[in-house]
Amino acid sequence: MFRSSFPEKVTDGVYLVGSSDLTDHRDCSVYLVDAEDLILIDSGAGVNTAQIARNIELLGLDPAHLSTLILTHCHIDHVGGAAYFKERFGVKIVMHALDAGAVEHGDPVRTGASWYGLRLSPPSVDVKLTEAEEALSFRDGTRLACLHTPGHTPGSLSVYGDRGEERVLFGQDIHGPFLPEFGADLSAWRRSMEALLGLEADILCEGHFGVYRTKARVREYIEGYLEQYGV
Ligand SMILES: [Zn+2]
Ligand SMILES: [Zn+2]
To answer: Which residues have CB under 8 Å from 14's CB, separation 6+?
Structure first.
C-alpha cells in the first residue's frame, strides 16, 4: 500500500524529516531547523538514516549544509543515526554531558539499544553541555537554547527557539517513560516541566506523538502528563 513519506513543514524553517511513519517505526520524530546552516534535532534509531537525509533533499535543502546535530537524550531511537550524520556530513554533535557517556560507550542498557534489539554505532560527542541553559547561535542569527530538563534521563535536553512571532519547543520524550534503568527521576522531571511551562511555547514538537499547536494546547499537553504522574 502506498504510504506518504513526504517530510512535513512545521512552521517557517522547521520541518519534520523523520518519524515512525516517515522513516522507520523505531524512529523518534526528527526535526530540521533551516538557519542557513541546517540543524537536526535527534537522528532516529539508525536503521533507515539515509531516508532522513533524502527527506532533507525532498525539501529542496542540501544535507551537505548540516552543521549541527543536537541529541535530546541518550536513547537509541534518538541517537542511532548520529554516527551516520557525523561520518557523512561532518555534523557537530551536541548533547548534555550527563547522557553523553552512554552514547560514546554504546551502553546497551542506558541507550535502550538492548530493549530495541539494535546495536548502536557510537559517535564521539563534540560538545557536552553542563549548564542549566546554553544557547547555540547559527548563521542567519537563529538562536536555539538547550535547556537541561532531567527526568526521563539525567541528561535530557529540551531545545527552544523563536521563529518570527512563534516560540517553538522541541520537547522530545517529556512524556516519559520513567524507568530506573534509564536513571529516571520524577521529581527532577516535575521541575523540568514547570520550566517548560514557563517558556509559553506556541508549538511543541514532540518526540513520538507529533506536533502540538497553540500556547493553550501545549500547556494542556504538559499539564496532562503532570496530572497523570501525580508528582
Ligand atoms: Zn527516550
Ligand atoms: Zn524516544
So the answer is: 31, 32, 33, 34, 163, 168, 203, 205
Could you report the per-residue pLDDT of 20-79, keeping only the tens digit for each?
A: 999 999 999 999 999 999 999 999 999 999 999 999 999 999 999 999 999 999 999 999
What's the CA-to-centroid distance between 18 and ligand 1, angstroms? 16
CA angle in degrees (0–180, nearest 5) for 219-220-223: 85
Compute the distance from residue 91 Cα to the ligand 1 centre, in Å. Answer: 22
Please state whether the predicted TM-score (pTM) of the whole model is above 0.85. yes
- Could you read off the pLDDT of 71-128 as tens digits, one per residue? 999 999 999 999 999 999 999 999 999 999 999 999 999 999 999 999 999 999 999 9
Give distance in angstroms: CA of 28 to centre of ligand 2.
5
User: How many A from CA of 109 to the centre of ligand 2?
Assistant: 14
CA of 208 from ligand 1 middle (Å) equals 9
Residues with CB under 5 A from ligand 2 (ion): 28, 77, 173, 207
